[in-house]
Design goal:
mainly alpha, hydrolase, three-stranded parallel sheet, 195 residues, Rossmann fold, two-stranded parallel ribbon, 48% helix
């Protein structure tokens, strides 16, 4: 049976989001169990090495090529916060690619829940010293980010990296109407810094 990349991403999104909605597990456990469930769907059993490699792979995931320069430029005028579904260790490993000193970092480990839980946003809002009217939530995932951020009255900007591609990638389908939309972080940063 041949499975396309888009089908695999959507299958992953289904399993990951179901696990994240349940009792809190570490992100390493989420990754491992997601792979086990995908393997069961496709009729194979991953080896211990494959499970271990996948569940420890976050530090190897590259940042989008435009992200670092955009964040460096934005940081000259704005405070930057991250609400991540990773844990503290994985965020630290991922941030080695960006090399950005964020003003606020809220991980799923700290919140003991995963986006789209409103809890993650409540934890972040409790740390950020600014009224909601001065916070702009910028993200790719409509499901994980825009739906909950808008439910809390935040303005949102969609980084629509899948424009022109079928499906929703590694996130479940969701309906939201962001306040603005850009193809990548560089275009967003340019627009913000021209204001």
């Amino acid at each position: 049976m041949s499975t396309s990349e888009d089908e695999m991403l959507e299958r992953y999104a289904t399993h990951e989001s179901a696990l994240e909605a349940g009792p809190y597990l570490t992100y390493r456990e989420i990754l491992e169990e997601s792979l086990l469930r995908i393997a069961a769907d496709l009729g194979f059993t991953p080896s211990e090495y494959e499970l271990d490699s996948f569940s420890h792979s976050v530090g190897d995931w590259p940042a989008f090529a435009d992200s670092r320069a955009a964040l460096v430029a934005l940081q000259k005028r704005f405070r930057l916060a991250v609400i991540t579904n990773g844990d503290d260790e994985f965020f630290s490993l991922s941030n080695k690619h960006l090399r950005i000193q964020f003003d606020y970092v809220v991980t799923a480990q700290q919140a003991r829940s995963y986006k789209p839980s409103l809890n993650n946003f409540h934890v972040a809002l409790g740390q950020i010293d600014a009224p909601r009217s001065q916070i702009l939530h910028v993200a790719q995932s409509l499901y994980h980010d825009h739906v909950p951020a808008q439910a809390l009255g935040l303005q949102t900007v969609w980084i629509n990296r899948r424009r022109g591609k079928p499906g929703f990638g590694a996130v479940p389908k969701a309906e939201a109407v962001p306040d603005a939309e850009f193809d990548d972080m560089r275009a967003f940063a340019d627009a913000m810094l021209e204001r």
